[in-house]
Amino acid sequence: MSNDLFERVDAYIDGLFAPSDAMLDGAVARSRAAEMPEIQISAGQGKLLYLLAKLIGARRILELGTLAGYSTIWLARALPPGGRVVTMEFSAAHAEVARQNFAAAGLVDRIEVIVGAALESLPGLVARREPLFDMVFIDADKNNYPAYLDLVVPLTRPGGLILADNVIRGGKVLVAGSMDAQVAGAAAFNSKLAADARLEAIVLQQVGVKGHDGLAVGRVR
Ligand code: DHB
Ligand code: MG
After folding, report:
1. What confidence tens digit (pLDDT) does each residue in 152-193 have?
2. How many A from CA of 133 to the centre of ligand 2?
């Protein structure tokens, strides 16, 4: 079976269950205009995050890796009134485009963007002593995924979800001791997630418009 077939089926599924709208199209258009990498999640992945957030009644969501805020918009739309997404972005330029997208989407009151390296921003978030998060979505630099996992588990409530994008990388995670730091990070993350007694988890293998990759889904016990 070809990648082309997987992409066409992905488009079929997205057309039925995750049709685009002005808010999402606008976000992608501004991302393109700013010449940002087009590596945001697919519409179908966005719908899955949205559904998972609704299924657990998420009110507080943490995201690592805002990019232009496409996934953040899906997450913010799943919140009840008064809900909040805190999203961390390394690049100030990307965060600026994301802020424009949130303003255009009318979502600024629900989304807080924190600019800087998440490894440095996360301890500051802990110091704020806010309520725990219901859901965390990790979609930033893959080499730091294992460190992110250690930092977000104590920030997530029992029964809360920890999700991570790009943990299969076209199957490259099968190669032990990969020289690619992104692949090695994803593989180390998967091993850590599987071994962590505080969590129960699985990886969903995914094919489609984003190629062949995987989404990790973990639940805090
Ligand atoms: C890359 C990053 C992503 O988060 C993604 O979903 C796809 C690709 C990348 O850095 O190549
Ligand atoms: Mg990703």
Report:
1. 999 999 999 999 999 999 999 999 899 999 999 999 999 999
2. 20
For residue 166, the CA-to-ligand 1 centroid distance in Å is 7
Please state, as a whole number, how many other Cβ atoms lie within 10 Å of the Cβ of residue 209: 18
Edge to edge, what strands does the sheet with 156-165 contain?
Answer: 111-115, 84-89, 60-64, 133-138, 156-165, 211-220, 199-208
Under 8 Å CB-to-CB from 110, ≥6 apart: which residues?
76, 79, 83, 84, 85
Q: Which helix (H) or strand (E) holds 140?
A: none
Domains of the chain: 3-220 (3.40.50.150)
Cα of 165 from ligand 2 centre, angstroms: 5
63 C-beta closer than 6 A to ligand 1: no
Residues by chain with Cβ below 5 Å of ion ligand 2: 139, 165-166
Distance 138 CA to ligand 2 centre (A): 8
Give the pLDDT confidence of 69-116 residue by residue, as tens digits: 999 999 999 999 999 999 999 999 999 999 999 999 999 999 999 999
* pTM, two decimal places: 0.98
Q: Any idea which ligand is nearest the CA of 211?
A: 1
